[in-house]
Amino acid sequence: MPADGAATTDYPRLHLHIDGEWIAAGDRRTHTVINPATGAGLGDLPLANAADLDRALDATQRAYRKWRATPAEERGHVMKRAAVLMRERVETIARIATLEEGKTLAETRIETQVAANLFEFYGEECRRSYGRVLVRPAGRRSLVIKEPVGPVAAFAPWNFPITNPARKLGGPIAAGCSVILKPAEEAPGAALEILRALIDAGLPPGVAQIVFGVPDEVSRHLLGSPVIRKLSFTGSIAVGKHLMKLAADNMLRTTMELGGHAPVLIFDDADLEKAMDELSAAKLRNAGQVCISPTRFYVQEGVYDRFVQGFSERLEKTAVGDGLAETSRMGPLANPRRPETMQRMIADAVACGARLRTGGERLGNAGFFWRPTVISDVPDTAQIMNDEPFGPVAVIAPVKGLDEAVAQANRLPYGLAAYAYTQDAKRILLLGDAIETGMLGLNTAMVAAPDSPFGGVKESGHGAEDGPEGLDACLVTKAIHQG
Predict the structure, then answer these.
(1) Could you say which of 126, 177, 291, 474 is catalytic?
(2) What does the pLDDT average to over 5-25?
(3) The domain 16-258+460-482 belongs to what CATH superfamily?
(4) Strand order across the beta sheet in which 230-234 lies
């Protein structure tokens, strides 16, 4: 794949990848990829037409028949070799991701390592998709085995341009499936680099393909084909529900990682310094554009004022700037939609009686920078307490105790991630049982790892990626009875 982009940015030329071929724009429609730090164009992305999608479907069907028969050891070798290549190419991948999505180089370097770790994990885990032998009388045998579900249509969002594509590719490829991936058009270059690592590691043509296009056109075309047997989607609840309706026509298996609005419960006995240090870093990771970002803070009254002040001070000190600058601790928002949303939701909260403690405004005249924001005394009636702002804003409200805190945490229809800080052992056990969420951090802001399932409950989706559960989500069960 050519990579001779503009010398000033080192941004690569962009392609589709179908049936082993890197395909340039030609006479296809294109989408201009924007650098969110400057607002300037980086490159033109080719958008797939109907013939491209048909070709990808034919290739994925052919490749699946061969890949599912490939021994697990060989599939694992490809994944582990791709992990090695990604680590060797970390600076190239990280720079591309920062240019097109905005987050700091420190974050995209870590993100590349996380994606490599996930491939390495799946490179081993694919050998452990065990079945079982059932107890039967002599002369009879019953087996339960697992097989790959079939070709997967996967859709990834822009906020993690490295790990999101890695998740969409890793589980299916390890399980023996083929994949057609549509990453976000806002951040395509990093996804293409992840695919390149797999191809250079020996992945056969057609097993993994990347297309871009008008989202509704691509999703309807792929999900309407009898070739596809599974849908994997990460994104908003509204789009997720729409895709599930399309998937229902062909009874597709689904993994849906949808939106969240993560609650954070801070109790009187918490180690406040630890909590504020960890949560402020987590809040500003990727400028708050993280589905598991801590956002709704419910703080017990005895430490409320101290927490609001300390948390605000930490956000005020954050160095915001171009993600390519090593001194930046937070980059820009990813697109012009995000500052507009921040402005509208913060204004609504203040109108509802909340207090703006710090931030609340754009930074500079170029790009999509936003000042880290803290709003306190936010009532439930404010939109920002009910809809995820997906930006660098923390909303804080006081609570009296455990029951009120849990009720607030569970109040919304979302259940992706939640956090709580307390030193009380009994309270920790109660919180583990009471909070409705797919992932819970108790005295930690870390809730994701390659060997741990990543997914939510309620309207935040179903199924999981990562861990053995992510592999199992790409397998189906067959019972074989022999008399």
Answers:
(1) 291
(2) 84
(3) Aldehyde Dehydrogenase; Chain A, domain 1 (3.40.605.10)
(4) 21-23, 16-18, 208-210, 179-182, 152-155, 230-234, 253-257, 461-462
